[in-house]
């Protein structure tokens, strides 16, 4: 059995990989000329379906049992993840991306507070300091938040942030319970919720179906599964901090694929976020060795 140090390193690696996968969302979104709910429907359908197939192929009957007889904690995780998905899209529609990004960047503080209340898990001061630095970095990247934005959009962004933070803490609390099935169901539930609102579900060409299938696999299925697996091995605040790497990585993929040069503030803010996360990981690794 792997020791605590190797388990901790594995958790960091998995959440880092999840952040990379999640950061590809703008790249795939640019390739799909459809409304957000149509994309959410197909993305969730492919993502949830692929996770379910992976579970059955790798675990056989045990994987099928995970899907059909989830514990209450699994359904709670799936519900919170779905809530995060379906509030994210309207939040972007009702207020600025800047406001949504900054609110999401408060996730490490929300997760740390919930973990302290539920699990009595005291956050490391180094992680909290790094979270402050990462929050400043996100603020520099988005840089144009406006005070007069729609209150409903801001409220939905807060709902999403609390939902994902609560999901992280529950996964941490039930770290010996398989939660990959919950990731599959959360995507399928997101598709179900999108049906009444989506306007172009039947209008995709074969090439577009392939694109959204890749979207569902890389950004959703892979990203959420890696985060669920990794966050149960890390303190909740640290898992949320590492996930903030998603923000500075987003413009990188758009630049790579579409030659859109990010604004100078994206480089400055991105360097601050990455520096904060790397500093926290190095600090934590040294503490683990002591």
Give an overview in words:
The chain is an all-alpha fold and 290 residues long. The chain has one domain (10-289). The protein is 80% helix and 0% strand. The chain is built from 14 helices and no strands. It has helices at residues 4-22, 25-31, 36-59, 61-68, 72-94, 97-104, 107-119, 125-142, 151-173, 180-194, 206-231, 236-243, 246-258, 264-289. α2 (25-31) packs antiparallel against α11 (206-231) and α7 crosses α9. The radius of gyration is 18 Å and the shape is globular. The chain starts with a helix and ends with a helix. The model has no long low-confidence stretch (mean pLDDT 84).
Count of distinct strands: 0
- The average pLDDT is 84
**SSE ordering:** HHHHHHHHHHHHHH
How many helices? The count is 14
Task: Specify the helix fraction band.
Answer: over 70%
Number of domains: 1
Distance linking N and C termini: 21 Å
Could you describe the largest sheet, including whether it forms a barrel? none
Give the C-alpha Rg: 18 Å
CA-based shape:
globular
Uncertain stretches: none
Oligomer: single chain
Tell me the strand percentage band.
Answer: under 5%
Sheet/helix structural class:
mainly alpha
Secondary-structure blueprint:
Blueprint: H1 4-22, H2 25-31, H3 36-59, H4 61-68, H5 72-94, H6 97-104, H7 107-119, H8 125-142, H9 151-173, H10 180-194, H11 206-231, H12 236-243, H13 246-258, H14 264-289
Helix pairs in contact: 1-11, 2-11, 2-13, 3-4, 3-10, 3-11, 5-9, 5-10, 6-8, 6-9, 7-9, 7-12, 8-14, 10-11, 13-14
